[in-house]
Amino acid sequence: MRYYGKEPFDLKLTILRMLYRLPVIGGLTILGTLLFGGGYYVKNVLLQGPAFYQVVSVYRVEYDVQDEKDVGQVYINQATWTTYIRSGMFLEHLQAYLAEDGESGVTMSEQELAEALGADLASDLRIPSTIVTTDDPEKSMRIAAGVEAVMTGALASEIREIKSIHVVDPGDTAVEVVPDVRVGRALILSAVLSCFFAVIIFLLKETGDDSIWLPASLWRRYGLKTAGTPKSGEFAENMKYFFRGEDGKGKGGSVAVCPVQEKLDGEEVLEMLKASCLETVGEGWFAVQSPVICPEVCERLREAEGILLAVKAGSHAGRKLEHVLEYLEQQDCRVTAAVLWGADERLIRRYYRLHI
């Protein structure tokens, strides 16, 4: 009989298992930080593209209103300013200005000019600014001069809400654009995300992995009487009780030691039992191979008076144990008790000392 539905989520065991995995989580965090944070650094610092130069021109707009308080109703916002300076009309006038200026040497298509232009609006709604960005400082200044000319001339006359536009701070200096590279934040974000996903992955593995780490899991999940681990204090007494003879004084009759996993040696388990359970293990005890690799052992198991399953602790142990139990049940082999082999004794001690 299985007890999966009745087995509650074991918070203590999950916490301890996650603590055991801290070195791995730390290693994955460092690896993720170096991989993603380092990639960001290489891309944005070491392999940084060509430099760009920016020229900013500031204007004052006189709106066609009777009272200053009405500016808030007719003002042009930042998005609209950007639309205006990237419009076909504006770019045609700008190209004409650059063509007339024989010394400018600027030959750019409308698409290239539109990509180089931008607009901003200060808290004072009457003070917009234009931004010209190219890969050459002289080119940026030449285009900025043309933008100022079109802003104060053709554009001001085209928009009926505007009386006039004046340049209050001409763009006479090209400033190199410093990329907003935040290596520190990128590294921190990479570390946090790497640690987060590492913890989530291991949590999913711990909760979804059919593992057995505690002797108690054999009882809670599978309903098997459990002698414990060979190093537990109650192991010998449990073995004596489970496999007591007809007179109730130990030295039971024929008992089969049956390993669950194919890599677990039944003879090794039997030798350990003879050394630690002198009052229980008699001459009638014998070891068999795992039913996983030798299904024929069930004939000997049926002849035995008792069956001791040896379950090796670890990941996926539950899957193997369930397969063996189902097979033994079909073969009418009744398991008397089980022992957890190769368990982490420190984990078990800490589990029972931890109070949550």
Considering the chains and any ligands shown, give keywords for the structure.
Alpha-Beta Plaits; Rossmann fold; 5-stranded parallel sheet; 5-stranded antiparallel sheet; 10 strands; 14 helices
What does this structure look like?
This protein is α/β, with parallel strands linked by helices. The protein has 3 domains: 1-48 and 179-208, no CATH class; 53-172, 2-Layer Sandwich (Alpha-Beta Plaits); 212-353, 3-Layer(aba) Sandwich (Rossmann fold). The chain is 48% helix and 16% strand. The strands form 2 sheets. Strands 1, 2, 3, 4 and 5 form a 5-stranded antiparallel β-sheet that branches. β9 (306-312), α13 and β10 (337-341) form a beta-alpha-beta unit. α2 (22-46) runs antiparallel to α8 (183-208) and α5 crosses α7 (137-158). The longest helix is centred in the middle third of the chain and has 26 residues, at 183-208. The radius of gyration is 40 Å and the shape is rod-shaped. The two termini are 29 Å apart.
Number of helices: 14
Helix % is 40-55%
- Quick one: CATH class of the largest domain? Alpha Beta
Between the first and last Cα atoms, what is the distance in angstroms? 29 Å
Keywords: Membrane, Transmembrane, Transmembrane helix
Transmembrane segments: 20-42
Protein name: Capsular polysaccharide biosynthesis protein
What is the strand and helix layout of this fold?
Layout: H1 11-20, H2 22-46, E1 53-63, H3 71-74, H4 78-85, H5 88-100, H6 110-116, E2 117-121, E3 128-134, H7 137-158, E4 162-169, E5 175-176, H8 183-208, H9 215-222, E6 226-228, H10 235-242, E7 255-259, H11 266-276, E8 285-287, H12 298-303, E9 306-312, H13 317-330, E10 337-341, H14 345-353
Parallel strand pairs: 6-10, 7-8, 7-9, 9-10
Antiparallel strand pairs: 1-3, 1-4, 1-5, 2-3
Helix pairs in contact: 2-8, 5-7
